[in-house]
Amino acid sequence: MAMFDVSQFPEAGVGLEYHLPRHTPQDELSEEGLDPTVERILAEGLPHFDYVEFQPTHCILEPRLLELGAQVPSLLHSSSLSLGSVGIAMDREFLKMTRRLCEKTRSPWLAEHISWSRFHGGDTQHFILPTLAQEVADTVVANAIELRDLTATLLVLENAPRLFSLHDAQEQSEGAFISRVVERSDSGFLLDLDSAIATARTLGYDLNSYLRSLPLDRLIEIHTGHPQRDWEILRHLFDSSPVKAITLEWDISRKTDDAELLTLITAIKSLRPKALFWQGCARQAPQTQLEQGAQTLLKLRESTWLSIGSASFFIRDRQCDLSLEFGVMFLPLLRHFLTPQTLGSALLLPGVLQSPEQDDNLAFLRELFSQGVLQPVDTSSDTGASIERSHPASLWAHWDAALEFYLSTRTGSHTPYISVSDLEAQLEQKASARRQPSAFKDYFSHPFVALENPLLAPSGAIAQSTLLDSLCERRTSRTFSDQPLSAQQLSLLLYYTWGATVMEQNRMGDYFLKKTSPAGGSLQGTEVYAVLMNVQGFERGLYHYSVRRHGLELLSREDPRVWIGDACGEQPWIKDAAAVFVSTARVERMAWKYEFSRALRVALMDAGHLSQTFSLVATALGLGCFTTAALRDELFENRLGLNYLEEPVFLVNGVGGGRLSVKP
């Protein structure tokens, strides 16, 4: 195993170990019941300490720690991941939260215990280490490596207290077990002196002998609640180990103890005074980074997008919210890294050095390197893949176009929104220059078939079931009977799903339509086309549903059963349905009001609302129904005569007689 590089851990100094307050009658809480420790740090900063150390779980119960972590240097220390639980995966959501906290606090390392707490069916709510079996060691090592890789943060492992002894069950000594786990995971070591003293007492060890058996050559951090008691041990450890931080338990809410605290911290720092990493020593200048990467193979990050104009180009990576603009003269340098290259080779390109643009070229390369646009290449891989930190965007590996849309329309914490009154004033002004697109689409020249008045339907037409009954009875049907859909059922389906229950004239010269489903911006941008195959009193064919007239406008008299299965992604059973309904979106309605891409999300949402309403109405009518998005859009566009940029196809709902075969 390679020599452990302690220099990767920066000097941290002396820190405060944060504990959540215990709410007893004797607690000195503020009038609002707030934690006085957090209150003081937020108001005054850390008194004499160099950093504060807290656990991810603390942020759940005291959210202001996130604010604190952005103001003062912070170390993260977890005790909830149960690294040694054999056969039980670490909590994925807690891992994600820990990663986010590492990014937010920029903690130089992350600490976790060599222990387990979770077991099948429960959690001890406290870390223990009952067995030193090889299987436990292998589990701790594997989880520690996964934790470090996922958070992209250095890891230190802490000894847990031994509260009971199982001499006959142990395969190795406590110190050997801890040392081997720390070494195999290539981690640093965090020594909790209180835990070490408890373990030595439980196992009958000599304390000094036990300490010498631990991986002190990797000792990065020390925890102590009694520094005066442990002074000689601290002195020895500072002399013999690469200690970077010592974390104390202290109640800073009592300002009367500040003088004593200052004396103690000064004495600890005198053991080995060094500059602290948050004073600027850990961050290397861009030139040093550039020199270090001179012989490393680099390549453009795969998630990078380029947009090239006449005078400049943009480098964008929406996964990282990155957008950089450069002059086109730098394109040859950028093109150089389309394949793995070293920075050194880039410097040898004609005109990069020994030219008036030398400083600009070097600044461009530094910017690419510091922003992570250039990623190191894994030379051990046959594919030469770039080494990128594990990123949630990997979930979208096959959804690159969807990811681009999602990230392009994602809003930020400070995205500006206009007030409703201001928006209405703007729309009225816009309508005076360009009329609002109609809420109706009509085919007035096509043959028209009026549908039965749904409001005159007999009371028994729709089953007298409750909404909850319909919700619970809804199923997806895959097989239908030969029984035709009645004209009345067709009318009820269309009206109570896509029909207008109320029409109100608006101030823009058009109408607001109210339907049984909500619609973004009251625009009702969804249109529906009925593909009838087995409906009583109607010829087979393609129809458009007229919301204005509550009727069907004939687009084509044909037998859709010939092609409907192919149009629905090779689902042959769809031709057995009595009717299917194709939902589209009239883009102009939404685009007139909302001049930003996020509005497409609303159009998709509208179609989803209507689809659910359709399922509930069909269920209440005693019909089998389904929804599918496995479509060949172009086939529907051609059959219905649609321009895909003006009216895209979103989904299909279908209905038929009976519920012979259903799935949830």
From TrEMBL:
| Annotated protein name in UniProt | Dehydrogenase
Tell me the organism's taxonomic lineage. Answer: Bacteria, Pseudomonadati, Pseudomonadota, Gammaproteobacteria, Pseudomonadales
- Which species expresses this protein natively? Pseudomonas fluorescens
A Pfam match: MbnB_TglH_ChrH
Q: Where is the Nitroreductase domain?
A: 473-652
Q: Which InterPro entries match?
A: Bacteriocin_Proc_Enz (IPR052544), MbnB/TglH/ChrH (IPR007801), Nitroreductase (IPR029479), Nitroreductase-like (IPR000415), SagB-type_dehydrogenase (IPR020051)
**What would you give as a GO molecular function for this chain, any one?**
oxidoreductase activity
Q: Could you tell me the superkingdom of the organism this chain comes from?
A: Bacteria
Task: State the CDD domains in the record.
Answer: McbC_SagB-like_oxidoreductase
